[in-house]
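Run log // design_07
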């Protein structure tokens, strides 16, 4: 390989890395919302609890009163089940990845009060799992 080309690529890489760290210092920190803990269904301040797991997982056990919508069907099914976009909704799944995606989709659909359980399933919801507003 041409030594001039190699040195140019190295210089370009170093410049990119330095630019990344410089821009990172300029960016303001992202505020993290405070955690909220839900202990019982009576204390849950949510109008709708939605399980976004697969149907088999839902049938194996779910939070009392929860509705099952697979996270890939949230865009189509959520407006049918929750027609009022101002109702508060909490999503959960087994590891919080699908609930996060479902909460993101719900916000894009115009729902205002959307939360999801961090890190777990419905059992975590009754064991003081952190709930994050989206």
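design_07 sequence
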């Amino acid at each position: 390989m041409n030594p001039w080309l190699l040195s140019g690529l190295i210089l370009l890489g170093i410049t990119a890395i330095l630019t990344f760290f410089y821009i990172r210092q300029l960016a303001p920190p992202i505020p993290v919302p405070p955690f909220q803990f839900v202990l019982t269904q009576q204390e849950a301040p949510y109008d709708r609890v939605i399980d976004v797991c697969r149907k088999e997982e839902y049938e194996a056990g779910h939070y009392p009163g929860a509705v099952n919508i697979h996270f890939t069907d949230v865009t189509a099914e959520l407006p049918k089940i929750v027609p009022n976009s101002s109702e508060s909704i909490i999503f959960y799944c087994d590891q919080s990845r699908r609930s996060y995606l479902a909460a993101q989709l719900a916000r894009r659909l115009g729902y205002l009060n959307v939360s999801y359980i961090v890190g777990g399933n419905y059992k975590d919801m009754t064991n003081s799992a952190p709930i994050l507003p989206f």
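The chain has one domain: 36-133.
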